[in-house]
Each structure stands twice: as structure tokens, then as C-alpha cells.
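PT: before anyone asks, these are the final sequences, not the draft ones from last week. 719 residues across everything. Please model them as a single complex and drop the result in this thread when it's through.
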Amino acid sequence: MIKTNSLTKIYGDKTALSIDQLEIPTGQSFGLVGNNGAGKTTFFSLLLDLIKASSGEIISNKIAVAISEEWKNFTSAFIDDSFLIGYLTPEEYFYFVGSLRGIDQKEIDLFLEAYADFFNDEILNQKKYLRDFSKGNQKKVGLVATFIGKPKVIILDEPFANLDPTTQIKLKQLIHKKSEDKELTLLISSHDLNHLTEVCNRIVLLEKGSVIMDKETTAKTLQELEDYFSA
Amino acid sequence: MSSSLFQLGRKKFLRAPQLEAKFTIKILMGLVILYFAGSFLFAGVVIYPALSKKFLEQDAISIINSFLVLIFAFELIIRYFLQQLPVTEIKSFLLLSIPKKRIIRNVLLRSLITIYNVIPFLLYLPISIAMFNDDYLLSQVFAWWVSLALLSLSINFITILVNKNNKVLATFVLVFIFVYVVEYYSETEILRSTGHFFDSLLAHPILVLLPASIFLGLYFITFKFLKININLEGSLVAKTGVANAERYNFLNVFGPHALFLKNDLRLIVRNIRPRNIVLASFLFLFYGLAFFPSIEYQSAFFIPFASIFITGGFLLTFGNYVPAWDSEYYPFLMCQNLSYKQYLDSKWRLMTFAVLVSTVLSIPYIYFGVDIYLMILSGAFFNIGLGTWITLYGGLLNKQPLKLNVKAKAFENTQAFSGKQFLMILPKMILPVLLYLIPAQVFNSTVGLITLASSGILGIIFKNQILNQMVKLFVKEKHQTLQAFTQK
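LR: through. Structure below.
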């Protein structure tokens, strides 16, 4: 689904990211770990054409993301709170995202019903603007919005951060359910090794912009990661 | 201590993301300031002798005195819109062991060091010197000048106090305009009677104590105001209003554009900053009142100039910040499957709509003559056809993100409409004046009107082509804009 060739991003004389070759097949749940500054967000930003690569290219579903904008048809993402529109209510935000992806309000209402449990009565009909919600509840809205319109690629940066424990568990279940869909490619980054090894079937470890480890998730993966980070 | 707070201000400037642009703007601002300073100085030097010569039977100084209230009102409005509070990162200091009093004193002190406080020296000092040469006693001249300087500095504090409240300003402006109009047409003395106070200052220099106590009083009120606001910061944050659930379905008539228009409407209604700016653009409607009534201003230059402003307020205040209005969630927009063309087109429609509304609202200007309304009309054509594009162009190049819902915090400048922005407006004002003026001088004013209006009509005819160019620029600037907007 996604292929990158000799991708680098250099700021001044500092290399933020340098990945020789990376291929993410369709249907994979791809997990990204690494300490601060390892290049996780840089990688995601490149995938979303939010920043320009210093060299190399990214091909998503046969489309070069830096050249064509067609990838937007099948890609959705939640990177940080700049992906929310603070002065909208959650409903309005979902409708807005829906109409950008060609889905009308009634369908959105139906779609949202399926997430009633995840929302835990804290999101809908609150008569509040998104900017007035807590960080965790804002994140719930942003995460669910990425599922609107059946995208083929979903990119989530730190989806577990700021969520309360119950919601973290619900999110894990949700991601599990989503990844049963063999058409959906999921890219997730997290600092939480437990969560990530649970929901992803492949883990890539970044360190100072380079790939240090790239493995299918097995029973041993969590231990290996913990060993690496405590060393 | 104070000096280290000053240093932080300096570092904030030098380490800002768009330093080069800021320098250019500073230099341009410097030129503009020099121009205005020169004008004030010139006015100060010339006005007293000129008035003495012209009105032999009246005291020149008492004529000046009767106009002082207008100058002060004007000063207040100018300061309100253009003057910025010196802002250091006050919040982070609150937890350090610096006494709050010292922080506030620093802010107030720094607020005095601003270009606007030079006015007393430029404008009033030359007049004082002329008075002294004209046989006034030193004590009289001194009392007069010190009073004016103190009142001018008092306005500085009033600006700080009012800066948080647009309603106060709107009320002030409306009352002032009302009183002024009543005075103008009924030949009564209301505002001008304030001149008697300044007259009596000359008779009894001891009255200088009055402005002095006003100044000191305002200093302490401002001090208290800032102190309370520092303390309230924490408790203010928790306040959240009930969301307004208006769906704006009437906008659906715009078809595919409705989506963005609805959001823009919500943006304006639900955020403090855009709301203020749109209110400010409403004030532009009254701009003509400053020019049209007086005969000496009915010159070839000022009428087109004012006419453009009357219908172009929203363009200047809102259009200048497209797409910066969306800067808070710009990465989101750039990841969505949205048509840039539709996005920009809906912004164009919004601005066009605003011009149309102001054109209708300005119908009362017919009172000053059909000619003037025709001027406003052709100005409106220009604003729709070309003004919109010029502002959009400027907006697309603007790399300054906007915080939408900055609550009234004592230490943050809530006015996006600063002097720097004003500077970017100037070229947009000069082009239409030339478009009218040149053919009007060569042929006659009708040809001028037609030229101005048809330049706008051309812009409407070639809308599609221009829009495509705008989209190209939009795409070209995408990454730079993203980078600038996400810098916090």
C-alpha cells in the first residue's frame, strides 16, 4: 500500500529522518516506536505531505504523495489537536468531515451510533465547542472522525496519550476490530509499548531518524522493546 | 530586574520565526512613522502662526483649545486600534519569585515608551514655543503643555483599560459621532465647550493639578486592573459558554460553497477575534462622514479614497487574513479531500457579500450628492472585482498565524488589526485612487468613474482565470504556510 524510497528529511545539518526503503502492505497494522525526536511525527507528516522531503519519495496506493493530491481520497489522519476545529461542536465537526468525504448528515448520525460506547456519553449533545472539551475527549472526537468514509489508510499519532484507562482499553478493542478489515492499512505511533504490541502486527523502531528494528509482532516483541529502551 | 524583562522582549523579537519579514515591516513602519511624525511636527509649527494671522479678532490658542477634544478622541481611537501592549511572557513569570507589582509596573512603564506618546512633543511643544514667543508667560505655557501631555498619557492608560472591551469603544464612537453631528448641525457648543477648560488653564495655571490627578488616578486604576486580571487568569479559564447550535441551513442555496460559508460564519460568530474584526469593519461604513461634509476635503483625491474604504472595510479586516483564520487547524484542512478552488471561491463570495451589504447600507450617503454615491458604487465594483483578489493575494502570502479565541487577557494583544497590517493595506488603497484620478484628470470625472467600475467588472469577468492563479499560489505556498502556522 505504502512504499518509501530513500526518504530523508534534513533540517539544517540535522537529519530528522533517513529511511532507505520501507514497504507497508495493504491491511497491515503498522506500529511506530521511538524516543522523542526519533522521527515518528516527521515520518507521518511526510506521508501526509505536510512537510516536504529533502530527498526520496513516498508512494501511497500508486500515488506519489508529494506530487498528486489524490491520496487524500483514501487517507485520513489524526496527528494532534490542530486536526480539530475548536469552534465547532463535535456533531458539526463530524458533519463537516463527512461532507468533505461525500457523506451526508443522516449517514453520519448512523455512523456515530456505533461509537456510543466509545464516547461514553461525553461527546454528543453536550452543547459545547470542541475547544471547551478536555484533551482526552477532544482526542476521542479526532480519532472517530478518522474512521468516517471508510478510508484505506489511517494514520494515528499517539492515539493513546491523554485518554483515560477505560477509553484506552476501548480504543484497543476498536483498533482490533478495524484491523480485521483486510483493506485497511493502519499506521500508529505510541510511547506505550504494551498497547502498541497488542494492536499492531508489525513494529518499527526509530532512533535518530533511522530504522533500528523492524519485526512482525510476536510474544517476545514486547520484551525485546523493553530491553532496547532500558539499555 | 526590569532590564531582564526588557531583554526578554528583545529576544522575543530577534528569535521570532519570521525575523526577516519582521525587519522589513519594521523598516517600512519606521518610514510611515517618520511621515506621520513629520506631519505632526509641521502641524505643530504652522498652526499657531497661521491661525493668528487668519483670525485677528480671536485668540489663536482658544481656537486650538476648542479642537483639542477632537484630537484627543481621534488619538484614543487610533491608539485603540494600533497601539499594542508590550507583551512579555507574563504568564511564565507569575510562578517565579518576582513580585507581581514589579511585573505590572514594568508593563505600564513599557507602555509609556511608545511612538504614540511622542505626540505631545511633536504637536504641542512647537505650539507652546510659539505661544511663548507671543507674550504668554512661561508658567502659562508650561501649565498648558504639561496638561496636554498628561492627558495624552492618560489616554495611553485608558487604551489599556478599554483594550479588553469593544463595546466601550463602540459606545464611545457612536456617542461621539452623535454629539458631533448634533453640534455640527444645531450650532450648539457641546464638545467645543471643553475648550473653555484649556482656556482657563492659561488664566489659572494652577489648574494643571487637575490633569495631573487624572493621570495619576488612571495610573493607579490601570495598575489595579492589571493586578486583578493577573489573579483572575486561572479562574477565567474554566468559564465556558453554551454552544450555539445554529445550523445556518439558509446558506444551502450556495450549493457546494455552503459547507465553507457555514464554517466561516461560525468562525466569525463564535470566536472573539474575528467577531471584533467584523465589528471594526462595520465602523468603516462611517468613514465617509469624516470627509464628505467638509468642503475642503471634497477634493479629487479624498472622495475616491473614502469611497473605497466605505464598502471595503470587511475586505481589509477579514480578507487580509485568509487563510490565517484557519491557521489553528491548517494541517487538518491540508489533509482533507477539499477542493482548494471551492475553498478560495467561498472566501471570495463571503467578501463579495460583505461589499454588497455595505453598498446597500451606504445608500444614505446620497444625502451628500448623487455623485458621491456613484463614486461609492464604482468603488464597490472595484472592491468586488479587484479588491477581493488583491486582499486574497496578500492574505495568501501572509505567514502570521492567528489565535482565534483569545479571551480578554490583560497581557495579550487581542487586536489583530495592528499597524503592521495597516501597512499592507496601503497599496490596495492607492491603486483604485489612481484608476479614478488619472482618467478623471485627463478627461472628466465620469470617465474616471467608468474606468474604476470597469476595472472591477473585468475582475469579475476573468474571475475563473484569476481564481486558478490564486489556487496555484495557494498550492505553491502550502508547505511554507503550514510551517509558519504550526510554529507556536
